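ok so i was messing around last nite and threw this chain in just to see what happens. nothing serious, just curious
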Amino acid sequence: MASVTSTLNVEDLLEAASMILISELGDKTFFVACIMSTRASPLYVGLSAYTALIVMTIVSTLIGISAAQALPHVIRGQGCRDVRWRVVLSDVLFVSLRMS
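result:
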């Protein structure tokens, strides 16, 4: 199993960027930014949206790192040696959070 502190390769970077791009298109934030830019300065709205995205990406990354360090110990303690649970868990979380 790879360490959380391992370096990112290009494939990981492209996978993360494409996941974020897909999840952000059509998001409520996207529509709110479009509407707000008709009433306020598009520059300020754009900067605010980018700032919010950066903050949420940092928070999500920190939560993911914490979960990656905590969950294997919990799962391993229950005797589960299959690593596919991470893929299933990430798929379930992605779908459930997109529907909210």
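not much to say yet. The first helix runs from residue 10 to 24.
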